[in-house]
Amino acid sequence: MKRTGAQILCESLVKEGVEVIFGFPGGAVLSLYDTLPQYPQLRHILVRHEQGAAHAADGYARATGKVGVCMATSGPGATNLVTGIANAYLDSSSVVAITGQVARPFIGKDAFQEVDITGITLPITKYNYLVRDAASLAKVVREAFCLSRTGRPGPVLIDIPRDVQMEQAEFNYPRKVEIPGYKPTLEGHPAQIKKAARLINEAQHPVILAGRGVIISGAYAELKYLAEAAQIPVLTTLLGVSCFPEGHPLSYGMVGMHGMAYANIALHNAGLVIAIGMRFDDRVTGRIDSFAPQARIIHIDIDPAEIGKNVSVDVPIVGDVKLVLKKLNKLIISTERTEWIGQVEDWRKEHPSLEIRDSASLLPQYVISKIYEATKGEATIVTGVGQNQMWAAQHYCYDKPNTLISSGGLGTMGFGLPAAMGAKVGRPDSPVWLIDGDGSFQMTIQELATIVQDNIAVKIAILNNGFLGMVRQWQELFYQKRYVATPISCPDFVKIAEGYCLPGLRVKHRGEVVPAIKQAVEHEGPFLIDFMVEPEENVYPMVPPGATLVEAIEAPKKKVEAISDSAKLPVSNI
Amino acid sequence: MATAKHTLVALVEDKPGVLNRMASLFRRRGFNIESIAVGHSELPHLSRMTIVVNGTTAMVEQVRKQVDKLVDVVKVSDITGSDKVARELALIKVKANSATRTEIIEIADIFRANIVDVASDSVTVEVTGDEDKINSLYNLLSGFGIKEMAKTGRIAMTRGSLVRSRSRHGRGKG
Question: Does residue B169 surpass a pLDDT of 50?
């Protein structure tokens, strides 16, 4: 039986196990939307801006490990997805974006709402397709999902001209995918694994530096085994947070620009760095030429192009983290490293990085620690970008796997609310908290309407300091407190909540924090709390741009004066 | 670290947009293409691309890995160090008159180049060879005045495999 292109797309999505599509209709996807009701298994969630659809699909993908799907019309619908697609690309998130395109005879004619979205997304997708006929659509969808979720995951875009959506073709869903140029290496090379094991067994001062690859690969147990058997301190990147229980005695938290001072010191002084599923981002390494100067480096990653890109590596192992660790673990000799662990413990004691200073005012770190207590560490935390994100990464204790969802590589303000929405749709039975800043939150605030319409019970904690806080912090420290364009006026978020028909509370004093959080937890649907926090609180520790990891500014007893002129800062990626 | 010209040969799917993906990758990663040449290969649906890129060995290795990551690229190798045949083709239109024409033709002969067009005021020479040969001919002809030149990118392949010729002599596998 012949079907239309739109039906073929829906049939294919059903075959791929898709349950939800975040989307926004328009002229070039009308046929798709008209067909959707024939497939009640495909739940459509109407966002208020396409960027929200892409972030929601991303949040959903990270929370579930499945592919997140978003859909938009041609032209502005497609370009509005771009930020979300780039975000998914940099954080290796499995997203399939479906866009409508003008009818084939109009392509290239600057037709109404025509944009070359495959051209635009070329450098920010793992792959993309302009579908030329309905007969090839099933194969395209099959390939797209396979590419998106396997190997190093990433976003794939499918652009479907509106006449292809209406064209009739036979529906045959291909059982196998054959892409001659695509064969991810999953099994690590045995000789390399042996070499790595030898280095680990001989190492005096090893650390594990774990990233999001551990989460994507689901290698929690393998990582834990390695750390425990060989007694190696575990450090994580921002996106690696929650790949290893933070309450574990061998967990030394996050490294990098706002990492724990002791974690950075341990990394800097390590004799062996076992980097697992991470890519030596500049926010992680600090000044690259003095990164872990004495260390030999083992780098396990599924993407061969990441090996040797930023730092030179002694033992590269290309493969799936879980499969590689399974093999590696068999060769690990159980060791006691009392001396080294003791040393790292001493650093932890000497450089307490998580102490919340005593203050009568409402501190953002305090708010987060109370959210942690109220949710007993069971919640999935989604963040905006900026200070809120760093405090959320630092002050919530992530004991359960894959419980922090944050925009790492792209640092997309506005990621929070839609991503939290996607995460909650993916994890309906577990609490999802959005910790956001007043600036970041306002970038995608319109999605409040979506969470209300679809009753997506996201709990929202706004850390409202009246500034674009992270930029202000840089201005304070490196631009002599010239606060240019960072003071930000905010609407009354409680009234905004009321306007969108969800309950909201304002919290100004410490004493109100716990009862407010309790109320949010006990409320069934979405809930917003506007925490009026200390306006000029800084995120510490902080490794200044261009500095080595051990040159962190740690939380001062009182506020520090500007430390240097920005012109004197070494060249780095600031 | 010293930079040098590297020759990469890629087998790619013969699909619309592949050249664009390749060029986009080079631009995006900040790699400089000296030349790129594409055409059909001996395999159906696959094209062979020869890319010449200038850089340090480490940088070119990163280029190679990034190219290899492109879904449409089936295989890519850096054949710089291998025993290979590499050719470029140039068409050079040289100013000529009755007094200089013979000399130009003689120079072309020495280079085993062909005269493909003769007009009252010019001679067009077609030359095939490696970069050095073409440059030498160009330098010699520039004395007469060059009106126009067009050049292809380099195409290259490794020479016949040694393994195969060994096995023919009974020294192969085993």
Answer: no
Contact A181 B61 (CB under 8 A): no
Do B89 and B45 share a structural domain? no
> What is the share, in percent, of chain A residues with pLDDT greater than 70?
97
Q: Does residue A327 form part of some domain?
A: yes
**CB within 8 Å: B12 and A181:** yes
**Measured between alpha carbons, how far is A294 from A279 in angstroms, rounded to an integer?**
19
Alpha carbon distance B48, B157 (integer Å) = 10
First to last CA, chain B: 41
> Which CATH number does the domain housing residue A286 bear?
3.40.50.1220
Please judge whether A181 and B72 are an interchain contact, meaning their C-beta atoms are less than 8 angstroms apart: yes
- Interchain pair A118, B72: CB under 8 A: no
A19, A42 Cβ separation under 8 angstroms? yes
Please answer whether residues A42 and A36 qualify as being in contact, where contact means their C-beta atoms are separated by less than 8 angstroms: yes
Spatial separation of the C-alpha atoms in residues B5 and B63, rounded to whole Å: 13
List the beta bridge partners of residue A464.
A532
Indicate the pLDDT class of residue A150, thresholds 50, 70 and 90. Answer: very high
Tokens matching residue A287: 């000044």
Chain A CA closest to residue B25: A123
Which residues make Cβ contacts (< 8 Å) with residue A472, sequence separation at least 6?
A: A483, A486, A487, A536
Q: Would you list which residues of chain A are within 8 Å, Cβ to Cβ, of chain B?
A: 118-119, 122-123, 126-127, 147, 179-182, 303-305, 307-309, 312
pLDDT in tens, A201-255: 999 999 999 999 999 999 999 999 999 999 999 999 999 999 999 999 999 999 9
Considering only alpha carbons, which residue of chain A is nearest residue B70? A181
Q: Are A219 and A199 in contact (CB under 8 A)?
A: no
Rounded to whole angstroms, how far apart are CA atoms A159 and A392?
37
CB contacts, 8 Å: A126 with chain B: 71
3-class DSSP assignment, residue B86: strand
Q: How far off is chain A from B162, nearest CA to CA, in Å?
A: 26
Residues B5 and B9: their CA atoms lie apart, in Å, by 13
CA A432/CA A418 separation, integer angstroms: 12
B-chain residues within 8 Å CB-CB of A309? 62
Q: Which of A180, A308, A312 is facing B13, going by the closest CB pair?
A: A180
Mean pLDDT over A170-193 rounds to 96
- Cβ-defined contact of B74 to A181 (cutoff 8 Å): yes
Contact by Cβ (8 Å): A282, A240: no
Same domain (yes/no): A206, A336: yes
| Overall domain count for chain A | 3
Query: What is the complex's ipTM, to 2 decimals?
Result: 0.87
Distances (CA, A) of A330 to A271, A314, A324, A325, B29: 22, 21, 10, 9, 39
Q: With an 8 Å Cβ cutoff, is B139 touching chain A?
A: no
On whether both B75 and B92 belong to a single domain, the answer is no
A146 residue type, one letter: C
The domain in which residue B99 lies consists of: 85-156
Selected for mutation to probe chain B from A107, A117, A118, A122 (highest B CB count within 10 Å) is A122
B58 and B94 co-located in one domain = no
C-alpha atoms less than 13 angstroms from C-alpha of B150 in its C-beta half-sphere: 3
Q: Is B1 on the interface with A (CB under 8 A)?
A: no
Local confidence band at B160 (pLDDT 50, 70, 90 cut-offs): confident
